[in-house]
Write a structure and sequence with these properties.
The chain is of the alpha/beta class. It is built from 16 helices and 17 strands. Helices cover 38% and strands 15% of the residues. A 7-stranded mixed sheet has the order 5-13-12-11-8-6-7, sandwiched between helices. The protein has a 4-stranded antiparallel sheet with strand order 1-14-15-17. A 4-stranded mixed sheet has the order 2-3-4-16. The structure holds 4'-deoxy-4'-aminopyridoxal-5'-phosphate.
Length: 454
């Protein structure tokens, strides 16, 4: 669903945001001190690029449900739930119970584990295209192994990804996640841009980019390179690029072209699995060859999973000659598995529908609040995944979302923190099962006060 509103004339956001930062520092003195201490031992004071924002992120002391309390005693409504992963919020009693019962029995054994089989049964039972599945410790490892599977199965190296697509912190996926548009070529035939230093230049030979939701560009890419392509990997809802849903017609064409050229269609549902029991692929009616998962399937603990077609996944069977290797000391560990089972059992179709409806209300409420204040705004996403873009619509790909004013976005993020709203600095939000209509009403009211601070 995309909501857009006309852009009224405004220049009101020209200020530097200095007052907002001063107010933030005044409100979070203990976080400031802890950030300074952390910077002495960790570059930037943390171990996660995405969680950083200037002047420093808050330090959380505790969290429960959809609320977090920082070390200065400020309470925030958590609108990002560790980047969409804590779908039942913090410290859900059923998940705490499952983990607490497991801990005295041990945490990981390097043996088979019934809980792992049970979680695999739940996932394969829910996702129609998932014949077989394997676990990892992160979404990054899940996508890395899915690509390895596609390369092994096809005997080809080339990977086609979307411009703005994020699939984890791995070399092949560092191409054109947030490319500088001055370097990225024309919109309808983008060139790959390396997003970080430290990745071999040769990676750019094995990864091609194409714009999301541009069927013609995809056809040209596959006409040129389809015979060399191992996989086309797509997030059914592109998260890092701004919560932008792939359109059904586009994903159907990905599927058709992959079949035509003997490549595999990989759906990265690491985030979008939360949108439907069968993943967003079930909403759109497409059938990827492989699907990747993470986030919600570990109940708040480190996790990833990948799987799909029986004939592709069979390559990982170590009892077979020349099997494809996939290892990981903590893969399928007992704590993650029991937490994942509890999280999945709580996540009924009715609950997914409920938090999707809350997400629709949130998206509309945030966008309307901004446009009523005379700011450009487009709400993107689907159900419980919400993106807000400070642009005139529509937003159908990375470049549409990259057009927003980054200074205004930063100021709005700081203003939201001052009003007790914790969202991703890129203005990504999600709903979670501890929320109800009253929480959304309160969030929209606070958001109105945050906008008024700009
Ligand atoms: N794919 C997608 C679509 C993601 O959103 C993410 C994480 N945000 C990943 C892969 C990587 O997952 P992880 O951070 O668990 O490695």
């Amino acid at each position: 669903m995309v909501l857009s509103a006309p852009r009224p004339a405004t220049a009101a956001h020209a200020d530097t945001g200095r007052d907002l930062v001063d107010a933030y520092v005044a409100k979070t003195p203990t976080s400031a001190r802890l950030a300074e201490r952390a910077r002495r031992v960790m570059p930037g004071g943390d171990t996660r690029t995405v969680a950083f924002h200037p002047p420093y992120p808050i330090t959380v002391a505790s969290a429960e449900g959809c609320r977090m309390t920082d070390v200065d005693g400020n309470v925030y409504v958590d609108l990002i739930s560790n980047y969409t992963s804590l779908i039942h919020g913090h410290a859900h009693p059923a998940i705490v119970r499952a983990v607490t019962e497991q801990l005295p029995k041990g945490t990981s054994y390097a043996t088979s584990l019934e809980a792992q089989t049970r979680l695999a049964e739940i996932l394969t039972g829910r996702v129609a295209t998932l014949d077989k599945v394997r676990f990892t410790n992160s979404g990054t490892e899940a996508t890395m192994n899915a690509v390895r599977a596609a390369r092994a199965f096809t005997g080809r190296d080339l990977l086609v990804k979307m411009e703005g697509g994020y699939h984890g912190s791995y070399d092949d996926f560092e191409v054109s996640v947030h490319p500088d548009l001055a370097l990225a070529g024309p919109a309808d035939s983008p060139v790959g841009v390396m997003d970080t230093r430290g990745v071999p230049k040769s990676t750019l030979h094995d990864v091609m980019v194409t714009p999301l939701n541009d069927v013609e560009a995809l056809r040209r890419t596959m006409a040129r390179s389809g015979e060399l392509t191992a996989a086309v990997i797509v997030e059914p809802v592109m998260g890092a690029a701004g919560v932008i849903p792939a359109e059904a017609a586009f994903l159907r064409e990905v599927q058709r072209l992959c079949r035509e050229h003997g490549a595999l269609f990989v759906a990265d549902e690491v985030m979008s699995f939360r949108l439907h029991e069968g993943g967003y692929q079930a909403v759109l009616g497409v059938e990827p060859d492989l699907t990747t998962f993470a986030k919600i399937v570990g109940g708040g603990f480190p996790v990833g999973a990948f799987g799909g077609r029986d004939d592709v996944m069979a390559m990982f069977d170590p009892s077979q000659p020349r099997s494809v290797s996939q290892s990981g000391t903590f893969n399928g560990n007992a704590v993650t598995m029991v937490a994942g089972i509890a999280a999945m059992e709580l996540l009924t179709a009715a609950e997914i529908g409920r938090i999707n409806a809350l997400g629709d209300r949130l998206r509309e409420g945030l966008a309307v609040t901004l446009t009523d204040a005379g700011l450009p705004a487009v709400g993107t996403g689907y159900g419980s995944m919400v993106g807000i873009h400070l642009v005139d619509g529509p937003v159908r790909n990375y470049r549409d979302s990259a057009a927003g004013d980054p200074a205004l976005k930063r100021q709005l993020h700081t203003a939201m923190l001052l009003e007790g709203l914790f969202a991703a600095p890129r203005l990504m939000f999600c709903t979670s099962t501890p929320m109800d209509d009253a929480v959304i009403d309160d969030v929209i009211e606070r958001f109105g006060r945050a906008v008024a601070r700009l």
